[in-house]
Specification:
The chain is mostly helical. The chain has nine helices and no strands. The protein folds into two domains: about 170 residues; about 140 residues. Helix 3 packs antiparallel against helix 4, helix 4 packs antiparallel against helix 5 and helix 5 runs antiparallel to helix 6.
Length: about 300
């Protein structure tokens, strides 16, 4: 098991865990958008008599069961990352803590998914299911951040650190409002599933307003970082976030004015995950502290660079 002791193994497992958690959000969206949310009408079994889908369940059963199966893939990457973090715990104790949280989050997400099915796709549990995925992506990103190699950290002014936190809060608000729009719209996951009762157009307008605020904050952040002479990797993180937000905005307008075709909605869900990840990346860049000698977690970047 010496390969688990390699820093590259931990980095790759952490990145794979992040990608897998983003990917399962998109496949989960496909389940809802194809009306397959109750393709397997119970949980943990697919039917009362079978843990797997049957021919009688048709394509909807296959889609829903396929998404459930992908949970095992997410779990495997989480376990692999945790195993590598455990083997390297003396060098990177923060990575071990992050790995534990990721695996715990995967287990919690599986349970919440089962509750969502048993509640016949209640829109509020569906919303919670998506938002927990965003928490999982955040946890997986923290793991990636704990093990990635980069130059010594830059100390941002307090105003920039607070701006990074504000952008993250607004980005999270945009995600929450996006789930409300989804819970009020036509793609319920099943023809019998309930809706929130909110006006979809009003919720879409509120969501758009929040997005505009977010983009404005991020553009201002980019200008501020450039004015301060921040390192390229920091200003680039802000620029990437703005670019991803603008692309996501284009997809959002396209899906709204074309009647919410499911391929575009899936792309929009992927965009939401990418915006969230880019937000977390910017936050990590502006709130991190320089490494301090003998400080355990803080010197992880130097030790990682020295052993890679």
């Amino acid at each position: 098991m010496e390969w688990l002791d390699r820093p590259a193994t931990l980095r790759r497992a952490a990145l794979a865990s992040l990608v897998a958690n983003i990917g399962i959000v998109c496949t989960g969206g496909l389940v809802r958008l194809t009306g397959s949310g109750l393709g397997c009408p119970t949980w943990p079994r697919c039917t009362e008599d079978s843990y797997v889908t049957t021919a009688k369940m048709g394509i909807n059963g296959a889609i829903e069961f396929g998404n459930r199966t992908l949970t095992s893939v997410v779990s495997v990457f989480a376990i692999l990352a945790l195993a590598a973090a455990w083997r390297q715990r003396r060098r990177l104790p923060a990575a071990l803590r992050a790995g534990i949280w990721v695996l715990a989050g995967v287990a919690a997400q599986a349970v919440l998914g089962g509750i969502t099915v048993r509640m016949a796709l209640n829109p509020w549990t569906v919303m919670a299911h998506f938002l927990l995925s965003m928490v999982l992506i955040a946890l997986a990103f923290v793991l990636v951040d704990r093990v990635r190699q980069e130059p010594p950290r830059w100390t941002a002014p307090r105003a920039m650190r607070m701006a990074g936190v504000l952008i993250t809060v607004v980005s999270a608000l945009v995600l929450v409002l996006g789930t409300v729009v989804t819970g009020s719209g036509p793609h319920s996951g099943d023809s019998k599933a309930a809706r929130t009762g909110f006006d979809p157009e009003a919720m879409s307008q509120l969501h758009t307003d929040a997005v505009m605020v977010l983009v404005g904050l991020c553009v201002a952040m980019w200008f501020g970082l450039r004015a301060l002479g921040a390192p390229l990797r920091v200003t680039r993180a802000a620029a990437i976030l703005v670019a991803v937000e603008l692309a996501q905005g284009v997809v959002g307008f396209v899906q709204y004015f074309t009647g919410l075709p499911w391929p575009v909605v899936v792309l929009h869900m992927l965009g939401a995950c990418l915006v969230w990840t880019a937000t977390l990346n910017l936050l990590a860049r502006v709130t991190s502290r320089p490494a301090q000698a003998g400080s355990g977690d803080a010197d992880r970047d130097h030790s990682l660079a020295g052993t890679a």
